[in-house]
Amino acid sequence: MNQYGQGSTTTDQKGPDMSDTTTRTVGVLGTGIMGAAMARNLARAGHTVRVWNRTRAKAEPLAADGAQVTGTPAEAVRDADVVLTMLYDGDTVLETMREAAPAARQGAVWMQSTTAGLDSVRSLAELARTHGLLFYDAPVLGTRQPAEAGQLTVLAAGPDRGRDVLAPVLDAVGTRTVWSGEDGAAAGATRLKLVANSWVLAVTTAAGEALALAKGLGVDPRGFLDLISGGPLDMGYLHAKADLLLDDRLLPPSFAVATAEKDARLIVRAGARYGVRLDVAAASAERFARAAAQGHAQEDMAAAYFASFDTEASEGAEAADRA
Prior knowledge:
By secondary structure, the protein is an alpha/beta fold. The protein folds into two domains: 10-185, Rossmann fold (3-Layer(aba) Sandwich); 192-315, N-(1-d-carboxylethyl)-l-norvaline Dehydrogenase, domain 2 (Orthogonal Bundle). 48% of the residues lie in helices and 13% in strands. The strands form two sheets. Strands 4-3-2-5-6-7 form a six-stranded parallel β-sheet, with helices on both faces. Strands 1-10-9-8 form a four-stranded mixed β-sheet. The chain starts with 9 loop residues before the first strand and ends with a helix.
């Protein structure tokens, strides 16, 4: 046990002599930004891939990559060695797997990669036990580009006895797996994911506010970026998000505003459960919600920048400056 009362983590990384040519049959439930990329990489690695999405049109393009598009979750998971869920939230996963799990074979591995929150992970693990599935809490770090390149980091927790089945799937979707225990129900991987996401969302919020303040004060945002470039305050992620805003490239999103709001609220809820007040995460959730209400829900989360601007307030400030 470590100082936080959790099991220690171990890391597996792919190397040139670690390839596994064994193929699996994988049922992928959810083909949004991340799920589609993961399914495509699984098919390219030679696995048999069956996909399902609530909106079938989002899954259809995967047929060109060799995936079989199915009409129901049950069809996607039938006879699968591995079931991969990458849906919007825990409630959606629970609803979908209640339909799918009875069709899955006993002993199949369930790789649950949705950012679902602590309560949901326990409910999903219980559903897995009910249907004789080996449950792996396995959220991922990375957005559209690393997902498409098969370069995700998988945070995983689950029993040793199914890891050999899961290994070729992990190799197809990521370059690194961080193991945090053998009990998926303990949500060790999800706990680590929430901590990591709290940092990502805080940086995104701070970047948006700095750029918004630059605009409000009439400061060239590129001048600000040049000022900190190469110094201790610099960060590649800041430049990446700033470029999306300044070059008006918020679509397609790497990580959407609506999803960022959902994750921020999961983070706040998890902190509250353990007596940790997360003011920045709570404020970030409200910023994402305001940006969504302004019409930016499906844009990249950098669009939270627009939450800094209220038309009436801006007009008032401009009038005050003129006076």
